[in-house]
Amino acid sequence: MLGKMKAIVKPRPGPGLEMATVDIPQIGPRDVLVKVRATSICGTDLHIYNWDAWAQSRIKTPLVLGHELAGDVVEVGDQVKLLKVGDYISADSHVSDGVCYVCRNGQPHICQNLKILGVDTQGCFSEYAAIPEVCAWVNDKSLPPEVASVQEPLGNAVYTVLAEPITGKTVAVFGDGPAGLNATGVARASGAGTIFLVGKHDFRLGIGKQMGASVVFNVQEPGTDVVPSILAATDGVGVDVVLEMTGNPQAINQGFQVLRKGGRFSAFGIPSNPVELDLNSALIFKGARILGINGRLMWDTWYQMAGLLASGKLDPRPVITHQIRLEDYQEGFALMMSKERNVGKVVMFP
Ligand SMILES: [Zn+2]
Ligand SMILES: [Zn+2]
Question: Fewer C-beta neighbours within 10 Å, C or N terminus of the chain?
């Protein structure tokens, strides 16, 4: 399709973003062109906005940001097989090559030559986006666009929680950002027992309660002592499952301290630096299992998520605290970087 569109771009190296008028992307033979209905801001976008060390090493400008979306297919490439014009789709941000050793072993979400939408390719903070068929997911037409858009991060939580059985288990979730709040919701929807949620912001912990947390801890509050409290509440045993959604070294260590012997530790949060850990007590003598969680399983996680959403037991809408116009993106980014963090997910509408 020829023409111009508005898009949020990183025009050149350096902090900040601009709203610009750019060409509608031309699709390749295996892509579809999507008219974006909704798109949401992710932590990754904040790194690119701030132009931190990771962004400087990874991002090539000019770049249209964004990898979480819902939209309608308006054009399909010659070799596209599964999708057709009119399909209502979202996307997994992980663009795999489909041919490497890891892909051929059934793990395309961690492809050896992985590309990320809106990071290594042009993204979806725009009116139109070119999406490779290999990472497109067809939505149920009844799914509201704001919910369909946040499935990509919600899928992280689904994978983190359901990597092993959760029903009836005691769970400690570390982190009250969208990932932790979604993980709380998925654990509750999947029949977890007591869920302890550890965070730093009362606003977000309030959402955590709505998502199904049994007990919340604000570590900023004087007198809060997470480890003894959780151990006391579990008769000194600790929890069956720890879901680490922060990457914070202190949270990681606390997570292992409250994990019961033989328990499961799902590691999703990404530390900024190497983390020191006492392997003897954390892992070996504990007989613990640490699962590294990256992205979402393609497409096991998406099918599980669709089932959970259709059941009505999982509803991510309390986590979607703001819905704004794409033009007002600065407001959305400011909210997500504010000290107070009175925000969950911000969804933007082009
Ligand atoms: Zn994301
Ligand atoms: Zn691959």
Answer: N
